[in-house]
Amino acid sequence: xxxxxxxxxxxxxxxxxxxxxxxxxxxxxxxxxxxxxxxxxxxxxxxxxxxxxxxxxxxxxxxxxxxxxxxxxxxxxxxxxxxxxxxxxxxxxxxxxxxxxxxxxxxxxxxxxxxxxxxxxxxxxxxxxxxxxxxxxxxxxxxxxxxxxxxxxxxxxxxxxxxxxxxxxxxxxxxxxxxxxxxxxxxxxxxxxxxxxxxxxxxxxxxxxxxxxxxxxxxxxxxxxxxxxxxxxxxxxxxxxxxxxxxxxxxxxxxxxxxxxxxxxxxxxxxxxxxxxxxxxxxxxxxxxxxxxxxxxxxxxxxxxxxxxxxxxxxxxxxxxxxxxxxxxxxxxxxxxxxxxxxxxxxxxx
Length: 350
Fold this sequence. Notes:
This protein is α+β, with helices and mostly antiparallel strands. Helices cover 35% and strands 29% of the residues.
């Protein structure tokens, strides 16, 4: 391979694989130096200069000019040095250009390995960058494979793959190969085995992004989603706040005849969604959070414990607590308060 072919190959690799030619040139240069040093006793006297822009590819050895050879690998006699450079003097160094062909098969193999490794490293970096740019975002993925044993799903996201664990799937949801689903990118970490992407369909962030896509007022910043608590596949509670007093945050999220929220409910496989109005007043917020149950009184405990006692009509007790305590549990997560619910009569039927 001559110089032009070499640089054409680097540029083609950059075009097809997206791997910078300069990056590959640096890796190849290092490999050539390592391989060539073996011919000179491992001494650090071999240098390689690859300039992609100017198509320069030079390999040379720096030897010390001497009157008497002490080390064949590092020394050169003055007479020989003069043939290379007329300015050569004893005690100084002279650069001897080498023909890359003389390095033989080992250099070619090493360079080939470095190119492969360089491509893997660059692609790994690109994968990490691509997922980091989508951190905490909603993406559409193609289902490639569903593992029949573990239930884990392999997804194609852009040019990359990611695994949706069974634990991050909505309970009862059936995912089929060849279909497209939306997932939330929870986190992206770099590891020894490559970028590790954590994706989910159960994370509250998925619901938040769906509402941002469906409700223009949220996307435009008129309405803010303050908090979300979720038990995926069953129920979600979301607290919203309007910066404009003329805009009803709950009504905007529900949409005309429930059109907006129903689209999201369908996306989540029928998961129930309670949308409540956020308030800085904890009494008002806790009351809202326990809906659809009616609340008679909210008593805040003294001290900074974020705990309260809530009184509801006896007929509303089961509704306030919810099936297996779900309504109370979600309300507590939504508000960040510990909520103790009691009936108006003071008696809880067992």
